[in-house]
Amino acid sequence: MPELPEVETTRRGIAPWLEGQRIARLITRVPALRWPIPAVLPERLAGAEVLAVQRRAKYLLLCTDRGTALLHLGMSGSLRVLHDPPPPGRHDHFDLVTTAGAVIRFNDPRRFGALLWTETDPATHPLLAALGPEPLGTAFDAAWLRAHCAGRRIAIKPHIMNARIVVGVGNIYASEALFRAGIHPARAAGRLAETRLAGLVAAIREVLAEAIRAGGTTLRDFRQGDGTPGYFTQDLRVYDRAGRPCMVCATPVRQQVLGQRSSYYCPRCQR
What we know:
The chain is α+β, with helices and mostly antiparallel strands. It has two domains: 4-124, MutM-like, N-terminal (N-terminal domain of MutM-like DNA repair proteins); 142-265, Orthogonal Bundle (Helicase, Ruva Protein, domain 3), CATH 1.10.8. The protein contains six helices and ten strands. Helix 1 packs across helix 6 (194-213).
């Protein structure tokens, strides 16, 4: 699933082709995605000016002079910027066409993506209203994390993957951040001292920033706006490395299921 770095990479890839432009038309081929694309959306977007392309958690926000389109990549979605588009393929579900001629094409083999619409403040939308702070923002710090870990017996890895605690820390980056912080993924959240949580916050920021600079992580489906894969795959230190030697101490990396997700860790470096 595209996680925060992949969504941010996508935002940066499409923003130059959308911001300050007008939408000529929205072409929908498969409106039945995770939620149906609103039938009124082609009419709402036709002629609308895109004021900004923003991101909140894993949602892209296309802010126009008429309202905001919320776009989620789902499990396998990607957006491509095309200037001489080929005929749409089986999984090319909609195109956003600007008056300047750019085509933003959404491809989603699993059809778990979404394109929704709101004419009110998007921060109050039901999908966004209860979300926690952005991991790269100032609101997410050791004090915040400590306050939301206090007394909790839940393992720290699924805890930091909870979007009400902090948004955008998906499975790959949670494993990588915990490795860098030296914290075992099954450690109870409430048993971590604030100094260790401060190290975890720093590790989350570091991993996400590095992944964004590398264009995200491509394991299966994700592609950047120009079609290239994300290169952070080459920098993964524990994720999907079960049985291979730890890059620090050479102990074999282990795999454990936590919160129904595979977790990867070094039993010697992480306590």
